[in-house]
Amino acid sequence: MFKGSLVALATPMKGNGDIDWDALRRLVNFHLEHKTDGIVAAGTTGEPTTMSFAEHFDVIREVVNVVDGRIPVIAGTGANATAEAVELVKYAKDVGADACLSVTPYYNRPTQEGLYQHFKAVAEASDLPIILYNVPSRTGVDLYNDTTFRLAKIDNIVGLKDATGNLERAAELIEHLKGQDFAIYSGDDPTACELMLAGGHGVISVSANVAPKGMHDMSMAAIAGDHDLAHQINTRLMPLNASLGIEANPIPVKWALCQMGLAEQGIRLPLTWLSEKYHATVAEALHLAGVLEQ
C-alpha cells in the first residue's frame, strides 16, 4: 500500500509540443531529491489524452527507468475503451510499474454495471495493483461508493483516487473499507489534508509538482494524525492549491514549472498557455508556498 504524497506528474514539452525527454528526466530527479513518495506517470496532469499510444508507453517506461525502484511508479492507464485500458495496463506491467491508475471511462457515460465490468476486465488482464480513479467533473461519469465497495473485493484492485472533493463521501469510503487492503487517496489538493486526517492514505497531487517537500511533510503529518502540524503546513499550501485550478489542469502547473526553470513553455492543443491575467496570482501562490523567490 502506497502512502503519502504521490505526484500527478506533468509531462514537460517543448514550444512545439514535442515531449522534452531531458526535462522529464530532470523533473523526476527533482522529485527524488525533494521527498515525493511516489510518481504517477501519464495521469491526467501528464496530458495522456493528447499523446499517441507510443508516446504514452514511452513516458511510463522513461519514468520507471529514471526512478529505478527508489520510489513507487504508478502508471496512468485509463481509457474510455476497455480494450485500450487493458493494453495499457499490460504494458505498464511489462516495463516494471508498481501499480496503475485507471480512470473511469470518460465521455461514453457507462452505467454502474458497465463501470464494474470495465474495471473487472482490466483487473483480470494483469496482476498489477490497480488504483481506481473517480473524477466526475472531467469524465462525465461518477463511480458510486457502492460500486467501489464491489470492486474492492477484487484482489488486485487496491485503492481509489477520489477527486470529488466530497469529504462526507470519502469518510463513508474510509469507514466501510477499514481493515481491508484498500487505500483511499485524495485527488483534490484543497481537501486532501482533511481526507488524510480522517483516515485516508495519501494524496495524488497536482501541487506536488512544484511543492513536493511541502506536500510530503503535510501528508506525513496528516496520516500520523498530527492535526496542528498538518494544518500549519496546509495553510501555507492552500493559495497554491487554489491557484493551480484557476484554469484547467495542467495549464497553471505547467506555467509554474516554467517559472521555476523546470520546464519550457510547452503544452498541447486544445490546451493553451496560462492566460496572462492569471500570471500574478499563480506567481504569488508560488512565493507564499516558498518555492519561488520574490
Record keyword descriptors for this entry.
alpha/beta, eight-stranded parallel beta barrel, 12 helices, globular
Quick gist of this model?
This protein has one domain: Aldolase class I (TIM Barrel), CATH 3.20.20.
Name of the CATH architecture: Alpha-Beta Barrel
| Uncertain stretches of 5 or more adjacent residues | none
- SSE string, helix = H, strand = E? EHEHEHEHEHHEHEHEHHHH
CA-atom Rg in angstroms:
18 Å
Give the helix tally: 12
Helix content: 40-55%
- The side-by-side strand order for the widest beta sheet comes to 1-2-3-4-5-6-7-8
User: Quick check: average pLDDT?
Assistant: 97
Name of the CATH superfamily: Aldolase class I
Subunit structure: Homotetramer; dimer of dimers.
GO molecular function, one term: 4-hydroxy-tetrahydrodipicolinate synthase activity
EC number: 4.3.3.7
Function: Catalyzes the condensation of (S)-aspartate-beta-semialdehyde [(S)-ASA] and pyruvate to 4-hydroxy-tetrahydrodipicolinate (HTPA).
